[in-house]
Amino acid sequence: MDRTYEDLVSRANAVEGPRTLNVMNRSVYFPKTCGRILDTSFHDLCMKPLGAIDYLALCEEFDIIVLRDVPRMSLEQRSEARRFITMIDTFYDHKIQLICSAESKPEELFAIGNLSEWDRHHKRILIGDLDIEKGSEDEKASLFTGEEELFAFDRVRSRLTEMKSEEYWNEKEMYKTSGNRTIKVSKRYGQSS
After folding, report:
1. In angstroms, rounded to a whole number, what is the distance separating the alpha carbons of residues 166 and 186?
2. Is 42 helix (H, G, I), strand (E, B) or coil?
3. Which alpha helices (H) appear in the chain, and where do they start and end?
4. 63: phi then psi, degrees, rounded to nearest 5
5. Are 166 and 188 in contact (CB under 8 A)?
6. How far apart are the C-alpha atoms of 182 and 188, rounded to whole Å?
7. In this model, does residue 32 exceed pLDDT 90?
8. First to last CA, the chain
9. What single string gives the DSSP state of each residue in 148-181?
10. How far, in Å, are 19, 51, 119, 147 from residue 178 at the CA level?
11. Rounded to the nearest 5°, which phi and psi values hold at 20?
C-alpha cells in the first residue's frame, strides 16, 4: 500500500501534507493527502462519527482514496458496518477510485454474527418504548433483526468487486491540472501522460 501511494504521489505533481475539510461547521482532519489523493484508514472513516455528508465531501475533494485496514465485520459492529456501507455506496456513486487493504476478500468481509450487547440493549428499549409484544410479527421487523444490513452487505460486496475491476477504473479517466502539468489517471492506479 505504501508503494502504491508513493507511486500515485509521484505522478500527482502536488504538495503532500495534511488537509482539513470543513463539513457542516465541523472540521474533519486527514494527515496524509496529496492533491486529489487521500491515504486514510477504516478507523478514520468508519469508527468516527462520520456520515453521508462527510463522504460526499470526500468525493468532492478526492478522486483516489487509499483505504487501509478494513476488518471483517458482523452485526456486532453495526455502527461501523453502516458507515462502511454508506461510504462505499457514496464512493461507488461518485466513481471514486478506491485502493483498499482488507482483512479478507470482499465476499468474506461481512459475517452474519449476532447483534452486539449494545444493539441488543437498544433493541429491548425500542421494543419496550413501542410497546411491541414479545414473539409478535412486529418484533421480527428488519429494524430489529439486522436484515437491512445483511441486504446492504450483499450490495456492498458486489460494488467492491466491481470497484476493483478494470472496467470501473476505466470509466473514470481523470484529467487534473496541477501547476503546468496535466495528469491523466486511469486503470488500476495510474498511467500518467
Report:
1. 9
2. helix
3. 2-12, 42-46, 52-61, 78-93, 117-129, 142-145, 147-163, 166-171
4. -105, -30
5. yes
6. 18
7. yes
8. 23
9. HHHHHHHHHHHHHHHHTSHHHHHH--EEEEETTE
10. 17, 30, 47, 46
11. -115, 125
Residue 103 reports pLDDT greater than 50? yes
HSE of 139, CA atoms in CB hemisphere, 13 A: 11
96: helix, strand or coil = coil
Q: Which three cell numbers stand for residue 55?
A: 463522504
Low-confidence winner among 9-23, 79-93, 109-123, 159-173 (lowest mean pLDDT)? 109-123
- C-alpha cell recorded at residue 44: 478514520
Instruction: Write down the residue that cell numbers 479478507 correspond to.
Output: 104
pLDDT on residue 92: 94
Are 189 and 7 in contact by the 8 Å Cβ rule? The answer is yes
Give the whole-number percent of the chain exceeding pLDDT 90.
41
3-state secondary structure of 50: coil
